[in-house]
Amino acid sequence: QVQLVESGGGLVQPGGSLRLSCHTIGTFSGIYAMAWYRQAPGKQREFVARIYNRGRTDIADAVKDRFTISREGQQNTVHLQMNSLKPEDTAIYYCNLSGLWGQGTQVTVSS
User: What is the rounded CA–CA span in Å between residue 66 and residue 104?
Assistant: First the structure.
């Protein structure tokens, strides 16, 4: 059974940086598009970034100049580099692969 495991979340001050990772555990053939979503308290889950199997990326307008998504080689492992973090970036960040979700990792931006 395939699982997604996120890591890298934590508490950071405004203006700081974090790097989230999403690892695929289990047998999974092929390279798939993978995405990051986030859900802040009391809000709906929203799209953050996606990387397609050939490397093209989509980034949400709210984070376009601050976040980047990358893939680790030819693997279903992706990273989300988050710079210049703002309090409004506080949320649980979830990884998605073909409808499969990870458990999420908490990101808190606060002074």
Answer: 20
CA distance 60 to 74: 24
**Distance (Å, whole) CA 101 – CA 30:** 18
Task: Give bridge partners of residue 106 from the DSSP assignment.
Answer: 92
Helix (H, G, I), strand (E, B) or coil at 12: strand
Residue 78 to residues 56, 71, 82, 100, Cα–Cα distance (Å): 13, 4, 13, 14
Rounded CA separation 42/29 (Å) = 36
d(CA 58, CA 81): 14
pLDDT in tens, the chain (111 residues): 889 999 999 999 999 999 999 999 987 778 889 999 999 999 999 999 999 988 899 999 999 999 999 998 878 899 999 999 999 999 999 999 988 999 999 999 999
